[in-house]
Amino acid sequence: MTRELSGALDYRTARACHECDLLQQIPDLKNGEIARCQRCGALLKRVHKNSLDRSLAFAITGLILFLVANLFPLISLKALGIAQHGNLISATIALFDADMPFLGMLMLFTTILFPLFSLLGTIYVLLNIRMGRLTPAIAPLFRFLRSTDAWGMLEIFLLALIVAAVKLVDLTEVITGISLYAFILLIITLATLSLTLNPDDVWDHLRKPKS
Amino acid sequence: MMTAREAGLISCHFCHNLNRLPSGQLPSEQDKAELTCYVCGSVIHSRIPQSLSKTWALVIAAMILYIPANVLPIMTVVMWGDGRPDNIMSGVMSLLHADMWPLALIVFLASIVIPIAKLLTLLGLLISVHFRSTWRPRERTQLYRATEFIGRWSMIDIFVIGILVALVQFGNAATVTPGMGALSFAAVVILTMIAAHTFDPRLIWDAIEESPNV
Predict the structure, then answer these.
(1) In this complex, is the C-beta atom of B163 within 8 Å of any C-beta atom belonging to chain A?
(2) B87, B93, B65, B91: which is closest to B184 by C-alpha?
(3) What's the pLDDT tens digit per position in A35-51?
(4) CA of A88: which chain B residue's CA is closest?
(5) In this structure, are B30 and B119 located in the same domain?
(6) Which of A2, A140, A203 is facing B17, going by the closest CB pair?
(7) Distance from C-alpha of B11 to C-alpha of B6, rounded to nearest angstrom
(8) Which H or E element spans position A8?
């Protein structure tokens, strides 16, 4: 263990790897560059130009698409003269009706509440930072959004929708609903949002006024 | 090479800013007092408290629930009064018979390979940290990273069941009802996701720093 190294580190810009705890100085990165831990390879920092503005645009787009995706059916079945429509909330309702409240809650949270709250929360945080209003709610709200990030599972729902359609296509007529297109665009928007939004930029704004 | 803990610093789990440990406090005492990050205000720890016992408990619970998840039916398809229970493997086989092998492969990976691989990986990581192994720490960290990233995709089967139950409601002709296997399987996925979250990969590296050979 060499103690001299600590003298060369600037603690405000140094980072400890979140996966192996190694202290290291992060070099100045250019747009699009990433820094990885020199010991375990974890992603330590990335830099995107206008990360917050672009993310705000994607989040607002995502919110509009989310609303449209919920308005009309994603998929419909036709059999024996009966048409059966399914939209995003249908699976949640059906599981509650089938006396599976735990699975119903799981559906409700992973496909409706977390994605919706994540979009609304992201817009709130980014809009306030954009307007220079650092309200006390931003830090705990953004922390909550980061820790529930893995629990919004819309992209998994899309794949499940495809699997379900394939299983049904032999038995009945499967018709894609108009909201399906909005839903596919929503998945693309959410994926882009998570690539663009650099959490470090949000935290940097929270640190500035104090130092 | 020096870790934040050795330097008397704590890295915030959320915003990754470095916090200085209050002076006079030993690194071994830092888990006892509740410290908060000066930038984002979250509670900070040098290592996740009781990481190993929490992860062990969750992994063992998931392993127990994995048995009913595979034995009990995940759903029952009733056509003209004739019920056919499906379990996880028969769902994969029906996709194979429909000549949809790419989808069959995805469901096979998500519902069978990933849950088993995830349980075995977490078990292996727990045992290796318990015995303070110094074997290939970088690869073990990468394994952990993959486990944490991929685990949520196992939820696909639960969603397929939800969609089928919602859509296939044609009275006497055809209905789909969810089974207890689906409930157990969902619990396995949730428990292993939380277990990956409570496991602290920095424990892998602590054994390296404390070993006399380095």
Answers:
(1) yes
(2) B65
(3) 999 999 999 988 888 89
(4) B163
(5) no
(6) A203
(7) 12
(8) helix A4-8
Q: Could you give the CA distance from residue B44 to residue B5 in angstroms, rounded to a whole number?
A: 12
- For residues B22 and B102, membership in a common domain is answered with no
| Cβ contacts of B174 on chain A, cutoff 8 Å | 79, 171
> Which of A140, A153, A160 is facing B163, going by the closest CB pair?
A160
**Could you tell me if B104 and B138 lie in one domain?**
yes
* Encoded tokens for B203: 């424990």
CB contact, 8 Å: B177 with chain A?
A: yes
Which positions ≥6 away from B50 have C-beta within 8 Å? Answer: none
Domain identity same for B82 and B40: no
Answer yes or no: is B144 within a domain.
yes
Cα A93 from chain centre: 24
Tell me the domain boundaries of chain A.
4-46, 51-210
Residue B4 is assigned to a structural domain of this protein: no
| CA–CA gap between residue B86 and residue B188 (Å, rounded) | 18
Residue range(s) defining the domain that contains residue B154:
51-210
Is A166 in contact with B103 (CB distance < 8 Å)?
yes
Q: Give buried/exposed letters for A87-105 (b at 16+ CB in 10 A, else e).
A: bbebbbbbbeebebeebbe
Query: Strand B9-11 vs strand B18-20: parallel, antiparallel, or unpaired?
Result: antiparallel
Interchain CB distance below 8 Å, A159 and B106? yes
- This prediction has a pTM of 0.91
Q: Please indicate if any CB of chain B lies within 8 Å of the CB of A130.
A: no
What digits encode the pLDDT tens for the residues A79-109? 878 888 999 999 999 999 999 999 999 999 9
Is residue B72 within 8 Å of residue B87, measured between CB atoms? Answer: yes
* ipTM score for this prediction: 0.90
Query: How close B186 comes to chain A (CA, Å)?
Result: 8
